[in-house]
Amino acid sequence: IVDMRGAAAPEEPLARAASNRVKLWQKAGTGNNLAARYRMTRRSSLLFETLTTQGSLRFTAPATLELRDDDPTGATTRVTAGALEITANDATLPAGPTLGDGSPVRRWLRDHVLALLGARDLAALRAQARLRPVFGLRTAFELSPAPGHPARAAIHDLAVQLDPDSGELVRLVLTETGGDVVTLTLSDHQRTP
């Protein structure tokens, strides 16, 4: 915003708060690749109890994410710019599905998770999304599909919590419109070039 004298007008509090969180997020991009530990939980009305898995996460810039469950009977999920592939960790089990880019919900979620892990491309993070600060948490913001985007039918929001010092992603909470909640908690971050 520019006033009549050409000096920059003060930012609105909401825009300033969002800007501060984005600057903290971009601070994490000191290396292209990321290795971390994860713990994922899923709460659903269709499950009797919360489903929990843990394992190792590898992000290879610019757009490859791999989640490998610690459990030998678990799976490895690989997300790339064009596909989602799930394979059993046990080679004697049948291969899992490979899903293409058909779903706008899957594309929106994939693009934003990859952008968050890359910690550099603000345009990719804001593409087809609304970004709002979470007040009361100085290191958190929410992403939601832009009005009119088909992903709004399935995704309520994706809450992002950052480490206050490094800016690394420490928690993602996906809230689906049906009420299911998936939480991905990261620890032991290691960035490499």
Describe the model.
This protein has an 11-stranded antiparallel sheet, with helices on one face. The protein is globular, with a radius of gyration of 18 Å. It is of the alpha+beta class. The chain is 18% helix and 41% strand. It is built from 3 helices and 11 strands.
Can you give keywords for this protein?
globular; 3 helices; disordered N terminus; 11 strands; single chain; 18% helix; 11-stranded antiparallel sheet; 193 residues; alpha+beta
What layout of secondary structure does this protein have?
Layout: H1 13-27, E1 33-43, E2 51-60, E3 64-69, E4 75-80, E5 84-88, E6 98-99, H2 104-118, H3 122-126, E7 129-133, E8 140-145, E9 155-162, E10 169-176, E11 181-192
Number of strands: 11
End-to-end separation? 37 Å
Q: Spans of 5+ residues with little confidence (pLDDT < 50)?
A: 1-11
Helical percent range?
10-25%
Task: Please give the order of strands in the largest beta sheet.
Answer: 6-5-4-3-2-1-11-10-9-8-7
The topology string of helices and strands comes to HEEEEEEHHEEEEE
Q: What global shape is seen? A: globular
Specify the structural class.
Answer: alpha+beta
